[in-house]
Amino acid sequence: MTGKERRKKILELIRNSKTPISGTEIAKICGVSRQIVVQDIALLRAEENNIYSTTRGYLIDSPKKYRRIFCVSHTDEEIEEELNSIVDLGGTVLDVFVEHKLYGDIRAELNINSRKKIKEFVEKLKNECVNDVRFIFLGQTKPEVLFNDIDCLICPSKWHEPMGRVVIEAFSYGIPVIGNNAGGIGELISPGYTGFLFDINSKESFIDALSSYDISDFNELSKNSIELSKKFTDERYVTAYKTLYQDLISESNIRT
């Protein structure tokens, strides 16, 4: 191997070793004398590799990596400027995520570490989302505005929801729901009656659920959804609790 290739190999050996590696061992692996190894180490140090010697061999100080989470609020036009400010200071934008109180963290990997990648990312956003009529970003919207504009709600929650209130809320507006068959969501949706179910781990299952929904069935599904939502009104819950409490405190149920 050439001197450049050998020094690259030496650097890899030192970096990958969890304990100090001696010059003799490096020389044996690379098939050169220990003196050549000493010269190569000097050249590697000159290239600003922080290699230092111990009584047991060579070690290297790897640059420390720090992770930070930034909470941001920006316009579409400010995205590029914001990302540039991070990579210009040597940072890498690993991912972006949104905290949803029902669905948890919705995360997408980015791994952006240069202005070139930022340009590509911003251009992709513009081409695939902003100018695509299939996508409409509403932001924070009142329920009555959202539900009046949609034909169904897709609820892909991975968590085993104990209740699934977003499903009930959609039902109350007459909107059928296509949801993951897990937890409370799976129990609330009756396939073909108030919506459809799918397995979050199966793309085919999701496609089948979407294909099962025919817009011509909307009126019937909507009527069924509204009817089901009436089971979850405040009045029904208050009445149920009062009945339970009255039963518990009645003389016939008091234990002596």
What gyration radius follows from the Cα positions, in whole Å? Answer: 31 Å
- Number of helices, where a helix is a run of at least 4 consecutive DSSP H or I residues: 11
What is the string of helix and strand elements? HHHEEHEEHHEHEHEHHH
> Judging from the principal axes of the Cα atoms, what is the shape?
elongated
How many individual β-strands?
A: 7
Strand content: 5-15%
Mean pLDDT: 86
Helix content: 40-55%
Protein model, in words:
The protein is of the alpha/beta class. The chain is built from eleven helices and seven strands. The protein has a three-stranded parallel sheet, with helices on both faces. A two-stranded antiparallel ribbon has the order 1-2. The longest helix has 16 residues.
Descriptive labels:
two-stranded antiparallel ribbon; 3-stranded parallel β-sheet; 256 residues; 46% helix; single chain; alpha/beta
Please describe the topology of this protein.
Layout: H1 3-16, H2 23-30, H3 34-46, E1 51-54, E2 57-60, H4 79-87, E3 93-100, E4 104-112, H5 115-130, H6 143-147, E5 153-155, H7 165-172, E6 177-180, H8 183-188, E7 195-198, H9 203-212, H10 218-229, H11 234-249
Parallel strand pairs: 5-6, 6-7
Antiparallel strand pairs: 1-2, 3-4
Task: Briefly characterize the structure.
The protein is of the alpha/beta class and 256 residues long. 46% of the residues lie in helices and 14% in strands.
